[in-house]
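Now read this:
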Amino acid sequence: MSVVTEEAVRTAAHQIWLDEGCPDGRAETHWHQAREMMEKAAAPKRKATAPKKKAAAAGEAAVAKATRAPARPRKTAS
């Protein structure tokens, strides 16, 4: 887990201030915006779960069984 430092937030807030044309009186807004952005970037990403192998194999077996040709009758010994 990554920690958001005050220096990183300060740098991001300064960049936001520059990008907006250096407006007066928006320091607190820029600070909160930068902190939210940094926390979101530092949050752990959730991995997408892969389908379970058993379920996938069972599904493939059902498809194969449904699509195979009918069995031929066996010859009997006479």
